[in-house]
Each structure stands twice: as structure tokens, then as C-alpha cells.
Amino acid sequence: MDLNKLVQAELDDLVGIYKHLHANPELSHQEEKSSKLIADQLEACGISVTRNFGGYGVVGVLENGDGPTVMVRGDMDALPIIEETGLDYASAVIAIDNYGNETGVMHACGHDIHMTTLIGTARMLFKSKNNWQGKILFVGQPAEEVGGGARAMIKQGLFEQFGYPDYCLATHVIPQIEAGNIMVKPGPIMAGTSQLKITLRGVGGHGAIPHECKDPVVLAARIVTSLQAIVSRELSPLTPGVVTVGSIHGGTRANIIPSEVVMEVTFRFADSETHDHILKSIKRICKYEALSMGIPEELLPIVEFDDDSHLPATTNDSGLTEIIRKAASELLGEDKVHDAEMVMVSEDFSLFRSAGGKEIPSCMFFTGATSAKEMALFHENGINPPSIHNSKFYPPPEPTIRTAVTTMAGSVLKLLS
Ligand code: ZN
Ligand code: ZN
């Protein structure tokens, strides 16, 4: 069996599906039509499908004799962005988000490529049934961008109902490399993330009588500045970390010292030790900055950890990474397989790995998503191709889909043959 030929034969049809998905994006928790399309496509491959699992999640099970279980995951949601690519299949969709606001919708994170890869991989494995044995779970996951989709599917009993996988695989498009190439690395490839709400309390009063008040705006300013020293002065320069205060709200008028300021903080890390270190330092800085301003014990800052927003780092199993590298080298050519660098964005794919209490060997590889023309511009002028989450981001469909499907299907075949 020649997998490259098999993918080539399906490519036009897969590109058609991709363009339809691209033109019809759906926001997180609203992936009704996308999930139906995936479910219908999987069923057309003789795969038994469960719909609306943990929201709009789709689970397809393809069983083919005794062997290990491999899960392939594709996320489905799009972003509240007005598309500016100028493509003839660009999205013109307007939707109401979960806060009741009207917004443009765009597949600016390439999840349309991920869905197409899921469908293409299912087709390849269905057609090559004589070449493998085992079980494959095809998971269409909703709500990745807001971090709730994987958690909802796991809570619903994904693995209890359909079996624990021996391996979990996923891909994400990346504009840093030209379409036709992949990048992967063992160990952490995407950061973990946690979110905090910090309520700073003071004593409010007239803006012209500050000495009778305890000003939480000044406290907020001190804390924002001090937090920057966690990454720059406490972590090793070789340890990745980010602390960002993304939201700060307090006060109503220039001449009123408020009694409260609320800040929201995200922090990123590559391992649980760094997570614990950053969290401890944030709490310490909040407490002692407040004490240094003479804020009484009973009004010390309240630091609240948002459990639902916590995601561990996406960490690639080294053995599984090697298998993916081998599959891609054989099918695409060794020169198309590159070493990835860790990125500080986060993914809820990381939750599947630890869902069963024991660690499931998992791997996410990056699929190049920039056209040769844009890559040439970058090399000539240093103009970066539009990044994911940018209104002008678009992958060239043929080479991106061909590469992702070939690598994904080839890796599953290696695991199950
Ligand atoms: Zn995204
Ligand atoms: Zn994404």
C-alpha cells in the first residue's frame, strides 16, 4: 500500500471539505454543524459514531482486530475575529457569542485543517484496514479556544465508555514553517496555563485626602511591577515562564480612591514545579506588597485560583515522538521533518494525557501552514507570515492537508501494524 498515493487520490475532496469548513466557522460551544459534518463523514467510512458527547463532541470508533488503541484528536471551534484574508472561500459568518455580543467568526487557528485531518486520517485507515490491527478513537473536540471542551468530554466519561487509549495523537498548524513540513520535539511542546483573580482591598476615600485612605490602585501598580521579577529574577534563564496581568479594574472617578481593584493574571510554565513556584511567588508578592503599604491583615489581597482554566503543559512522549518522526521522514522525506521549539501558548489536548490517572503516551506535532511565497518574503525582508489568531492567517490548503493527513495516518499505521 502506498499511503502517499492514497492521500493524493482523496486530496481534492478533502480540500473541498476544508473550504466548506473554513467558510462556515462556529464559535466555541456552538460547533453544531461542524460536529455533524465530522460525524457524517466518519460514518461514511463505516465508523460507529457517538454524537453530542460532552457538548458537541464527536467520538468515532474503528475496531479492526486485536491490537493497541490509538486516539486521534481534532479540535473544531473558531474565533471571534472578522476574516481579512480576501480568499474566495473566506468566512462572512456573523454570530452571537456566549456573552450576547455580535461578532465575526473565523477559523484563524487552523482548526478547520485539524478537522479535515481527522476526516482524512479516518478515510486512510478505513481504506488500509488490511495493513493494521487494533482500535482507533477519532475524537472531534469542541471548545478548545476557551479551554472547556476536552474537560467536558473527559468528565462525560470518554475513556470509561470508549476505552483508554494506549496513545493520543494531535496536530496543530504553525505558520513558522512552510506547508509540506512538520516540526516535533520530545518533552514539553506547549506551555501549561493557569489563571488567577486577585482582589486588592484598601480603604477608599477622597482623592485629595490620600493619607486617610489605603489606595488599592497604588498597590495594584506595585504588584504589577513586582510580578515581572518572578520570571526575570526567580526562574532560571533556561526555564520558560510567563506572568501577564491582562486585566485590571478599579475606580470610577479621578477624585475617588476606590476600596477595591480586581486584577486577572495568566501564567505559563513547562512543568508542575515551575507552576507551583510561580503561584507561590504571586501569593507572596501580593501579601507583602500590601503589608508594606500598611494594609491591615484583614484586608490582605485575595488570590483565587481558577481550577477550570488550569491546563498542564502539552508534553510529548519521547518514544511516540520518534515513531512520528520516522513515519514522517519515510513518507514526506527526511528534509521535511524539523525540530520544534516549545511555544508558550497552551492547549487542552494536554488533559487527555493525564485523564486516566496514569500518563498516556501522547504527542502533538506541528504542521507547517505558510505558503512558499510568504516564506520567501520572510526570508527576503524579515516580514513574519501572519500568526495564528490573526485575521489574515490562512494555510495553503493542498500542501497543508496532504502533510497533516499523511503524517497522522502514517503514524497510526506505524503504531498498529
Ligand atoms: Zn487558538
Ligand atoms: Zn488552535
Structure description:
- The protein has 417 residues and is an alpha+beta fold.
- It has eleven helices and 18 strands.
- The longest helix is centred in the first third of the chain and has 21 residues.
- The protein is elongated.
- The chain starts with a helix and ends with a helix.
- Please, what is the average pLDDT? 97
Rg calculated over all Cα atoms = 24 Å
Total number of helices? 11
Order of adjacent strands in the largest pleated sheet: 1-2-6-3-7-18-8-17
Helix proportion: 25-40%
Outline type: elongated
Structural class by sheet pairing and helices: alpha+beta
Low-confidence stretches: none
Strand content: 15-25%
How many beta-strand elements? 18
Give the SSE order as H and E letters: HHEEEEEHEHHEEEEEHEEEHEEHEHEHH
Bound molecules: zinc ion
Q: Sheet with the most strands? A: 8 strands, mixed
Span between termini = 13 Å
